[in-house]
């Protein structure tokens, strides 16, 4: 015998398709969900930006500015303790929301735009508007970078000051990730505003930034690591000054 479903009039009358379904019971929950959604969108956008840069769809300057902004937004959102607790870590977040995005993952773990991680090796031919030199992928002119042969004295002085500030912090026994990472980020940003060429010790700056970026917010470097960082940054500073020639 075939049985037919008969709707429950009491149940059906109590539910309206026009009713708004609330995903959050409190303003705090709504803010948390919005922050996690922002992180999701940052990962998706960053992956697109990484691929666009590799395919030479966007210029080096556009890539650096956009990537830096997205990385900054990601770090700022995760400064909130409740968001950080709900987020867990990047791999857990990706599993929970069934995400992959390997290019964005690599960039978030590095914490630096690819243009900071790998110097371009010199001024772009496009820095001269009348130049007829051939175009090479990923060697776009960045308007924020003066030509390597004529660095701005003001930008060079700012980079020098950031080196000194970071070394002073190390000598004052600063050892927490949230103390050191912003200062070292300032160093590499200032250096890249002066020159896009490689110099002795530059790789050490990048390596320490990556190591600090992968630490937890409350983690600290050991005394041995702090002393090694002083040594490496002093060598990088000397290499930077020598490169200015």
From TrEMBL:
One of its GO terms (molecular function) is protein-containing complex binding. GO terms for biological process: protein transport to vacuole involved in ubiquitin-dependent protein catabolic process via the multivesicular body sorting pathway. Residues 10-118 form the VPS28 N-terminal domain. Its main location: membrane. Keywords: Endosome, Protein transport, Transport. Pfam families: VPS28. It is found in: Late endosome membrane. Residues 151-245 form the VPS28 C-terminal domain. It is a peripheral membrane protein. InterPro entries: ESCRT_assembly_dom, Vps28, VPS28_C, VPS28_C_sf, VPS28_N, VPS28_N_sf. Residues 113-151 are annotated as: Disordered. GO terms for cellular component: ESCRT I complex; late endosome membrane. PANTHER family: VACUOLAR PROTEIN SORTING 28, ISOFORM 2 VPS28 (PTHR12937), VACUOLAR PROTEIN SORTING-ASSOCIATED PROTEIN 28 HOMOLOG (PTHR12937:SF0). Component of the ESCRT-I complex (endosomal sorting complex required for transport I), a regulator of vesicular trafficking process. Belongs to the VPS28 family. This is Vacuolar protein sorting-associated protein 28. The lineage of its organism: Eukaryota, Fungi, Dikarya, Ascomycota, Pezizomycotina.
């Amino acid at each position: 015998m075939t049985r037919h479903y008969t709707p429950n009039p009491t149940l059906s009358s109590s539910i309206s398709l026009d009713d708004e379904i609330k995903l959050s019971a409190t303003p705090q929950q709504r803010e948390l969900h919005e922050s996690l959604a922002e992180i999701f969108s940052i990962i998706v956008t960053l992956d697109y930006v990484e691929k666009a840069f590799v395919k030479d769809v966007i210029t080096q300057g556009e890539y650096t500015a956009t990537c830096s902004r997205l990385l900054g937004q990601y770090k700022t959102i995760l400064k909130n303790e409740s968001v950080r607790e709900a987020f867990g870590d990047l791999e857990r977040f990706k599993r929970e929301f069934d995400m992959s995005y390997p290019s964005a993952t690599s960039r978030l773990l590095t914490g630096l735009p690819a243009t900071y991680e790998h110097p371009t090796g010199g001024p772009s031919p496009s820095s001269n508007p009348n130049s007829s030199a051939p175009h090479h992928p990923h060697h776009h002119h960045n308007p924020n970078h003066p030509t390597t042969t004529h660095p701005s004295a003001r930008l060079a002085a700012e980079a020098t000051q950031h080196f000194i500030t970071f070394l002073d912090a190390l000598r004052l026994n600063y050892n927490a990730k949230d103390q050191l990472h912003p200062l070292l980020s300032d160093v590499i940003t200032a250096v890249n505003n002066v020159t896009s060429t490689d110099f002795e010790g530059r790789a050490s700056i990048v390596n320490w930034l990556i190591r600090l970026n992968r630490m937890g917010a409350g983690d600290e470097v050991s005394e041995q690591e702090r002393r090694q960082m002083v040594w490496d940054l002093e060598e990088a500073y000397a290499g930077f000054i020598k490169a200015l020639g």
